[in-house]
Amino acid sequence: MAVTIREVASAAGVSVSTVSRAFTAPDQVQPTTRQRILDAAAELGYSPNPAARSLRGGGTGTLGLIVPDIANPFFPPIIKAMQARARHLGYTVLVADSDEREADELAAIAAVSKRVDGLILWASTLTEDQLHELAGRMPLVVVNRHVPGIPEVRISLSAGIAQAAEQLKAYGHRRCVFINASRAELSRGKSIQESFEALDLSLSELGPYEPRFETGVHAATLVAAHDATAVIAHNDLVALGVLHQMANLGVSVPRDVSVIGIDDTLLASVSTPSLTTIRIDPEEIATRAGDLLIETIASTTGRPGQGLEVASPLVEIGSRLIPRASTGPAPAH
Hints:
By secondary structure, the protein is α/β, with parallel strands linked by helices. It is 43% helix and 17% strand.
């Protein structure tokens, strides 16, 4: 039988994805590590030419990615980076949109699952039982959704949110509003609440709504009712809606109200005023999620109904505040 990429990874003491990179993107592997992999491959008689076929076990050569809203400017850079990463490892990427609705997500999974070797679900709306059932049928990775027993990429906003709270505190803000625009990512609101309370900042919550520009437009008219001087939005798209409506209402940002988004999309840097936001690196997410799924595929038995052979890994992505013109000193009363 032909030597598999997993056998080379085991002999070299590295992950499957590192072996793949050693042959497809050698500049991304430390020279000493790559040499160890090459030595192990030579000793075992492994040829890199069928690497993708060995890794996929005769599969489709395609990874599936289902995102909540493909129109959200946060996702296109992630999709592009994941396509580039997958191409290096011998895969293509098939993308679908769930529109943050369970029925649409189930329909997307049904349409995509037979065409891919593994699936990444972003902020899934499915129940834990549904996700476990799916993970029993195919390699699965979840992003921003914790389910015991399923490999996970977790975006930690703790550092970025703490920095945002510290900035608002230093600017003299005391009353803030969080616009919650997701039912799936419950940890986001909790993390923001804890960070603001730790600095004795009052935080009221609006929502949950849908994570869209129109949500920010709607919520902006409610901010005044909370007598707030600062707003933190679920994402940049919602924050941009707030900026738009504040201008329509004759409210100056940041003189009257400071506004903070989350994601650091391209639109955040070109808005008027430019948007202070919490940055999440799309290339890091794409690379880590793609690698985790490929390792999960390689660690799967390949027999129908079988789950994963390895303990569920957890990959965590950090965040940081990007200060721009939409935040400033609290207005004097």
